[in-house]
Each structure stands twice: as structure tokens, then as C-alpha cells.
Amino acid sequence: MAALVVAVAQPACVELDVAANAMAHAQAVRTAGARVVVFPELSLTGYELDAPTVSPADPRLLPIVDVCAATGSVALVGAPVDGRDGETTRHIGVLAIDGSGASLAYRKMWLGGAEPACFDPGTEPAVLDVDRQRIGLAVCKDTGVPEHAAATAALGIDGYVAGVLEFAADASVPAERSARIAADHGVWVAIASFAGSTGGGYDDTAGRSIIRARDGSLLAEAGPEVGEMVRATVG
Fold first, then answer.
1. How far is residue 89 from each of residues 10, 30, 82, 124, measured CA to CA in Å?
2. Domain with 186 in it: what CATH number?
3. Radius of gyration of the chain (CA)
4. CA separation for the pair 92, 154 (Å, rounded)
5. pTM above 0.90?
6. Helix 146-153 crosses helix 173-185 at what angle (to 10 degrees)?
7. Is 3 left (phi over 0), alpha (psi -120 to 50) or beta?
């Protein structure tokens, strides 16, 4: 299996400003030095539950596409997204962006708090193939539901990545959940957690993005600061 360099990023967020946030994402990818760069939940809009959906074809994503083309990176970014063709559903999603463009990679399955009033749950787990590694995708509450990791692992995965949002008082959550998932399924885990203000009442978020090896050992952990990013080689 090829080794993979993964980074987890905590970019500054401007509420509802997809263009500004995309530029911040592009800068993070440019400096990450990683094949895969993971961003927090709803990272393109902030945690604004009524934000308009973002299409994979949105031209505001082009700065990320261009940087991924230059660096050979894959960026996993968070955004509100539409349902499948012919559906009127609305979801919390993960967009996978590389040098060829953006695609909708995953829709969050387990919603929490006020989210069910604004979004529909996704219906199935998802896996992304990068350099012969199979990466399971998750968003926030998914990571706290053992059934989600189990269903994703059943698809045959090497790693499990998630974008999350936690209050500063819950800063230990990414570490605890990543340790459980690695122990239960023998996969490496990367969780990107928002830092600073994200909108939606989250004025002081946890940061503490984390990467763990298959054996659960800590490979990298960010602090609580906005703009911090850490990376590690996984395999």
C-alpha cells in the first residue's frame, strides 16, 4: 500500500462568504504539502444552516481546483449541497476537489441539534479512492455513532476522515472519537475541526484537529488556533 500524506486544516471562516472561504481553503492546500487535505464541517459557508447550497460546478471553487492542479492534492471541503438529480432534498455534504474539478463525495447521515429542520440525512456511507487507499467519509455527528463507522468500514477502508464542529468546551471529542474508531476498525483516522468563529452561534470552537495511525497512536494534533494545520504520513 502506498503511503499517503494527509493534512487537517482549521482555516479562518467568513460567514456565508463562499468566495472568501474558498480562497482561504486554496491557501491552506497550497501550504499543506499533502496529498489529501481535510476541512471542517460546512467549511465553505460556516455553520449557517440556512446557507444556500453549493454546486460542484460553482465557479467560486475554481481557486481550490487550480491549487489542487498545481499541487496534486485532493481537498475534502464541507458545504450545504443538493440531493441527487430529481430529488428536492438538501444535505450537509463533502465535496472532493482535485485538479479536474469538484464532485459531491458524501452526504452526512446522522444529523444533530437543529440540523433536521434544515437538512435531510444522507442514506449511505461513502468511500473515496486515493492512491490505492480507500478513505471512508464522515461529518461531525457521524463520528459519534458507532454504526456509521461500522457501515463505512464494511465497504473496505484503509482510513476514515471527517470534518467536524465542536464547542471549545468539547475540545476532547475529536481525540476520543478518533481513538475509538481506530481501535474498533484498525484504520487510520483524520478529523478536521473548526477553530474560532464559524457563525450559527458557534463563536468559540474547539480546533484540536487530529490524525491517528491504525494502531490508535497519535500522529499529529493541532491546537485551538485559527489557521493551524497539521499533517502526517498514513498507510
1. 28, 34, 6, 14
2. 3.60.110.10
3. 16
4. 23
5. yes
6. 40
7. beta
